Amino acid sequence: MSEPGYQAFYRVPEPQLALTSAQAARLDAETRAQVSAVAARLIGRMREHANGTGVIARFLSEYGLSSAEGVVLLSLAEAFLRIPDAFTADLLIRDKLGEADWAAHLDRSSSTLVNAATLALRAGTDLVSESARKGVLHALVRRVGRPLVRRAIGHAMGMLGRQFVLGRTIEEALERAGVATHRFRYSFDMLGEGARTRADAERYFHAYAMAIDSIGAAAGNRTGADRPGISVKLSALHPRFEPAQRTRVLQELVPVLTTLARRACNHDLAFTVDAEESERLELTLDVFAAVAALPTLDGWNGLGLAVQAYQKRAGAVIEWLDALAARTGRRIPVRLVKGAYWDSEIKRTQERGLDGYPVFTRKAATDVSYLACARVLLAAQHLVPAFATHNALTVATLLEWAGTRRDVEFQRLHGMGDGLYESLLEDNPNVNCRIYAPVGGHDDLLAYLVRRLLENGANSSFVNALQDPTTPIDQLLADPAETVIAFSGTPHPRILLPRDLYGPDRLNAAGIDLSDRMAVDRLQAAMHEVWSGRWDAHSLIDGEAAGQPPGPTCDPACLERPIGSVRMLAPPMAAAACRIGAGAQPAWNARSRHARADCLRTAADLLEARTPTFMAIAIREAGKTIPDALAEVREAVDFLRYYARQAEQALAPLDLPGPTGETNQLTYSGRGLVVCISPWNFPLAIFIGQVSAALAAGNSVIAKPAPQTSIMAHRAVRLMHEAGIPPDVLQLALGDARLGQALVAAPRVSGVVFTGSTTGAKHIERALAAINGTILPLIAETGGQNAMIVDSSALPEQVVGDLITSAFLSAGQRCSAARVLFVQDEVADAIVERLIGAMNELRLGDPAVLSTDIGPLIDGASRQRLQAHLDAMGSRVLHQLPAPAGGHFFGPALVALDDLSLLKTEVFGPVLHVVRWRAGALDVVIDQINATGYGLTLGIHSRVNSTVERVRQRACVGNLYVNRSMVGAVVGVQPFGGEGLSGTGPKAGGPNYLKRLCTERVTTVDTTSAGGNASLWTLD
Ligand SMILES: Cc1cc2nc3c(=O)[nH]c(=O)nc-3n(C[C@H](O)[C@H](O)[C@H](O)COP(=O)(O)OP(=O)(O)OC[C@H]3O[C@@H](n4cnc5c(N)ncnc54)[C@H](O)[C@@H]3O)c2cc1C
User: Fold this and answer.
1) Residue 167 forms beta bridges with which residues?
2) Which one, 189, 375, 500, 915, has least CB within 10 Å?
3) Closest ligand 1 atom to Cα of 413
């Protein structure tokens, strides 16, 4: 299938597009003056009238996001309403209110209501604060006061919500709106997004369906475009509305959307599909096009779409929609918005290391894009334009361009832009205005509320600047086109491209955009070519192929599919290999650390260029899914570049202070030959990480990978040789644990780096201790009994998403994976139910297919161990997914436990154990986790800072993840490794790793020995 034209703009560089848009948005001097005059009048009126901007807007102006108090209010609003228990609610209130300096805001607002609220917040803070004065009376007031404060905050947050939500039910909203008679048109939105389960999606479907009937019934005699409408979010209607699930989404979602659209058509209502995250755009358009093409909807012009102007593809999407409308013989209403997910678009792109952003990075660039898109929309033959904005300057420009057209509509959100549109209608009573009115209870409200608060409180936001009396009107009227032209369309200087995230000295590993169908097709084609070949791996001793006769190796996802052969090294060969390696080390060590770093950087570039090849091997040999295989290669590239940089910076000679007449210098030197033993679960990343660190520090290396992933290791070593690392400096020994033992015990080994089981590490530790002679260092990274703690302030859908990622993806075969969920009693049932629902949406199967979430286990032995564990758990198993046949698949499982002590060993696979805890028992939970003796990763989901801080202080773990998944550590960003039974440290990908692989030497020179202290004598 060919690429739709708009995709060419997905992540194009910003300047050219911003400048083209600016030219399209530019006004001649006369029009500019008219537009400014209209905008100035609107702004003036809004500022004049105390109520012109609404209480909430002024509240947010006092407590903008740049103040600590604004952030506190935002976080309180986000969490408070969903907390069911008093204990956690009180913790949150104390935590949030206590952080802020309310006194500084007293009597500062022009609104009495805002000042009264400030006073209340301050009083509330005193009541809940631990530092409030002591004494019997105070104790009494505090006891009586807490429920009071809780109720007051609940009311305040409810009020905040109601400001942006028209009603809890569609009936309530319809009544409040007075749809049949109101001068504004309405579009209702049933709040809810991001269904995670089929039940969620069905609930939202019914809510939409019922709402359509109710709106239709209440629409009265309104006709045509004047009739009310409904807006729907596709992510609410399907639990996996993701590009990777394209086939399934088209099959399942198109009929659902069709049913709703037909229903809206029967009532002749406007039916608009909202715009969501940029990576969902192509899928949204595919679903939309499929529904638009249905003959059953012929003749109906209500099917519409929202388009986000902050996206670089916006203009081209509007042209595409015009063509679709022409093709399907309909007029398509298009709602042009700027876009509500800007901050998350930036973050996600950075995390994925992509070439460029899908959105503009300067506000003015979005503004001109909006205007340029408006031009395209107004010129389109088959589209009906609707402009959704609260920006008076944008409105004034569009008013000018729309002229006397009657089919143009302006739209605002309920709770925003009231003053603007009242004022607009005063001067232009014929202008059509529609209010987008969200409907829903507080469970569904929060994500929406936070977006609105962010929008109102952001410095860049027009409504925020309008509120601030110190913002001069000229600033509000500044022409965005001139602004963009003045900075030549360049991106925001503080929003670096993902590639440059780590500064000029280290490139970020390049990602592949898996949301881009064409990029995926190219990747698949490249991988298929690799898969069509056979891979034969052998040990590499002094650059020569070595090993016993080849043995076959199979794909763990399909045991019938041989993928190549492997020649293992016989253990007696270990000593000879070690002699060669030890002999080669001095010359390698004598190279400058810059020369060694250059080899690693060359290897990184080669690896990056061959990403599809290494992904293809990871998929077939290790059973990695496509996203996991990509992450694997990126991590390896990051390790190479990170340790190259570390060698240059951290291993630089250090001049030390001392008495005059003497120099003292500390230098670092490689230790000798290091044996690197790596696991199969990160066959490239950990393998390369260990090897590159040892090499960077000046050591020679014998690498012994896990036998299951020998092919990957063989390819990686050949690549390192190609990058300039001498074959005697880096040797590859393929084999099992017996070979590992032989290497560790071989003469002339100077250190061991090991990643694997705790038992394996203990064996090595004992073997090294038994060696008579040098005391040898061991860096061991081992397993964990990793837990995630969830309290009742956490956002359930986020928790569920992060648990799926942390416990089940990668078939749970990460040492960092979540093994135990500690969930607070009050929310446990709901979370477990949703978790089961979300598990049911996972797809197990061939990891080479993009829609597969979970591939196979590495081998039959792993599967047997997991099965034996589940058998032992018996009736405690709450849920397990079925596993496909043909490979080492194992269905993810959920197991209920009363107590963590029932879990004796690490369960390495997709099994999550659930333990409940009572509010107030956080310390007991932490004690249980510490008592396991492991200390690798820990997750905490809580909105209460003091809870997070308590966990941080008391939990003995290497990596703590707060309000996110607990896997996927990034090199140099989250240095990784545990303590106790989980490893020796130092952390991989961290600043202390290389030094552990070096010896330190200090040279002291008496500079006076040859004739006195000249430097002292020559002082002035
Ligand atoms: C009726 C209606 C329906 C809506 N439906 C949707 C929808 O389906 N999907 C959706 O995403 N949003 C939707 N929105 C929300 C909409 O995106 C925001 O309300 C809108 O962006 C605010 O723009 P403004 O012109 O009112 O304000 P302005 O203050 O002029 O613009 C704010 C916007 O500028 C952009 N911006 C801010 N900083 C930067 C920066 N540094 N670089 C680049 N851009 C920046 C962001 O888009 C931000 O929201 C809807 C809004 C309305 C009124």
Assistant:
1) 439
2) 500
3) 53
Q: How far is CA 366 from the centre of its chain?
A: 23
pLDDT single digits (tens) 479-508: 999 999 999 999 999 999 999 999 999 999
User: How many angstroms is it from 480 CA to the middle of ligand 1?
Assistant: 15
Confidence category of residue 998, pLDDT binned at 50, 70, 90: very high
One-letter amino acid for residue 1008 of the chain:
T
**Ligand 1 mean position, distance from CA 427 (Å):** 25
**Residue closest by Cα to atom 34 of ligand 1:** 363
Question: Cα–Cα distances in Å, from 742 out to 236, 380, 568?
Answer: 57, 75, 13
Please state, in angstroms and rounded to a whole number, the distance separating the CA atoms of residues 604 and 723. 9
CA 609 to chain centre: 25
164 lines ligand 1 (CB under 6 A): no
For helices 737-745 and 574-590, give the axis angle rounded to 10 degrees: 60
Atom in ligand 1 nearest the alpha carbon of residue 231: 8
Percent of the chain with pLDDT over 90: 80
Q: What is the mean pLDDT of residues 691-706?
A: 98
Per the document, the length of the chain is 1020
User: What pTM value is reported for the model?
Assistant: 0.94
Q: Is the pLDDT reported for residue 222 higher than 90? A: no
CA atoms within 13 A on the CB side of 292: 28
Angle between helices 86-98 and 112-128 (to 10 degrees): 110
pLDDT of residue 984: 97
The three-state secondary structure class of 83 is: coil
Give the range among 216-220, 620-624, 866-870 with minimum mean pLDDT: 216-220
Q: CA–CA separation, 641 vs 990, rounded Å?
A: 12
914 - beta bridge partners? Answer: 821, 896
Query: Which of 273, 308, 337, 370 to probe ligand 1 with, by most ligand atoms within 8 A of CB?
Result: 337
731: β partners: 702
Tokens of 527: 């991988």
pLDDT band at 127 (very low <50, low <70, confident <90, very high): low
CA–centroid distance, residue 789 to ligand 1 (Å): 35
Enzyme catalytic residues: 781, 815
> pLDDT tens digit string along 252-273?
999 999 999 999 999 999 999 9
| Higher pLDDT, residue 817 or 1011 | 817
Flag whether pLDDT at 744 surpasses 70.
yes
* Choice from 366, 367, 368 to test ligand 1 binding pocket (greatest atom count within 8 A of CB): 366
Whose Cα sits closest to atom 31 in ligand 1? 461
pLDDT tier at 86 (50, 70, 90 boundaries)?
A: very high
> In sequence order, which residues have a C-beta less than 8 Å from that of residue 901 and are 6 or more positions away?
928, 931
Closest residue to atom 8 of ligand 1, CA basis = 274
Three-class DSSP category at 432: strand
Q: Looking at ligand 1, which residue's alpha carbon is closest to its atom 39?
A: 363
**Does residue 234 have its Cβ closer than 6 Å to ligand 1?**
no
Ligand 1 atom closest to 434 (CA) = 1
Tell me what pLDDT residue 991 has: 97
Would you place residue 56 in the very low, low, confident or very high pLDDT band (cuts 50, 70, 90)? low
Residues 145, 129: Cα–Cα separation, whole Å: 11
What single-letter DSSP state applies at residue 63? T
Could you give the angle at which helices 198-218 and 246-266 cross, rounded to 10 degrees? 20
Q: Which residues have CB under 8 Å from 496's CB, separation 6+?
A: none
d(CA 376, CA 270): 22
Question: In sequence order, which residues have a C-beta less than 8 Å from that of residue 179 and are 6 or more positions away?
Answer: 186, 215, 218, 219, 220, 222, 228
Percent of the chain with pLDDT over 70: 94
Residue with tokens 């964990």: 784
- Full DSSP string of 346-398: HHHHHHHT-SS-SB-SSHHHHHHHHHHHHHHHHH-SSEEEEEE---HHHHHHH
Nearest CA to ligand 1 atom 36: 363
